[in-house]
Amino acid sequence: MMNLEATVTTILGEVQQHKLGIIHPHEHLFLKNGVPAQVDASLVLDDYEKTRKEVALAMTHGVQTIVDAQPIGAGRDALLLRRLSEESGIHIVACTGFHKLVFYAQNHWIHTASSEALTELFVTEITKHLYRDGEDDWPSTAITGKAGLIKTAADMQGVGGRYFSLFTAAAAAAKLTNTAIMSHTEMGYHALEQIAFYEKHEVPPEQLIICHLDRKVENLDYMLHVAESGVYLELDTIGRFRYHSDEDEVKMILKLLDKGHEDRILLSLDTTNKRMRHYNGGDLGLDYLQVTFLPMLRKAGVGENIIRKITIANAARALAK
Question: Where N6-carboxylysine occurs along the chain (predicted)?
Fold first, then answer.
């Protein structure tokens, strides 16, 4: 059940939890052409009109809220996010935090800033204002708007090395602001390590959203183990056929539901420019979840009450303060 008093911080302000509607909790609406694009050209999303048209597709099918999962200093375009929300009416939740280190230049501040400085930066974006810069120098140009989520990420080395300081800063910011953390896992690895780290730093499982555990079909038993910890599972290997089929994704979701985890599942698409119809003629589009995948779940016997939980209620609860 939703708390009618709870709110979620969007880029335009606080929105009551029960007014968020259908939520895509992990998308990429804009991503500046920089280091991430050098790693993977499909990540660039820098055309306002093309993104606006994609969002319009999703809104046509009832989507009212989208989380932009790109954090400060790694290509996030806070100005375009704010403009899109103002002009389209979509609720957008912006992220502070950090991404995988491969997405930053070698001389980027993310490699050297202290945990204390990073904590202060994250807390500032959550409680005061966003920054429009940070790809090169330490962020300095503020704009109106606040972050509603802390993005974290690790590669195959897990929470060790430089990531230890980054995760420490994220945990401190989450504790100070009661803000949820959405954490990238590399092909589903190290999820339990991340959860244990955050619990040690007094961030409870219900404040954590763990991403991408559904990348590999063979991860199912591990995913069930992670779900038992009480975290939210953000599943987004939908329409991503280089990993597995949508039929396999449906089977994984059915297994999670069968084990009683209906209150912990979130669904999204984790979009790239290759998959959006208005960018490179992609074959999916931001409405794929509603138009194609949810009908598959319904055909497999998933009822509307469960559909509402995994597309509306769970994400709203995960994001709310």
Answer: 151
Q: What is the pLDDT of residue 236?
A: 95
Question: What residues make up the domain containing 108?
Answer: 7-319
d(CA 295, CA 311): 13
91: annotated binding-site residue? no
Long-range CB contact pairs, 190-194, < 8 A, 24+? 190/154, 190/156, 190/158, 190/159, 191/222, 191/226, 192/225, 192/226, 192/229, 193/158, 193/159, 194/152, 194/154, 194/158, 194/159, 194/167
According to the model, what pLDDT value does residue 274 have? Answer: 84
Instruction: Please name the residue ranges forming H helices in the chain.
Output: 35-39, 48-60, 78-88, 115-127, 162-177, 191-200, 220-227, 246-258, 277-280, 288, 294-299, 304-308, 314-319
Closest CA to 117 of 148, 72, 161: 72
CATH number of the domain within which 142 lies: 3.20.20.140
Does the annotation flag 244 for ligand binding? no
Q: What percent of the chain has pLDDT over 90?
A: 88
Instruction: Report how many domains make up the chain.
Output: 1
Is 18 known as a binding-site position?
A: no
Q: Is residue 213 part of a domain?
A: yes
Query: 184: annotated binding-site residue?
Result: yes
Q: What is the pLDDT of residue 1?
A: 64
Q: What are the tokens at 144?
A: 């109106």
Q: Is 28 annotated for ligand binding?
A: yes
Q: Tell whether 268 is covered by a domain.
A: yes
**pLDDT tens profile 155-168:** 988 999 999 999 99
pLDDT digits (tens, 9 = 90+) for 256-296: 999 999 999 999 999 888 888 899 887 799 999 999 999 99
24 is in an annotated binding site: no
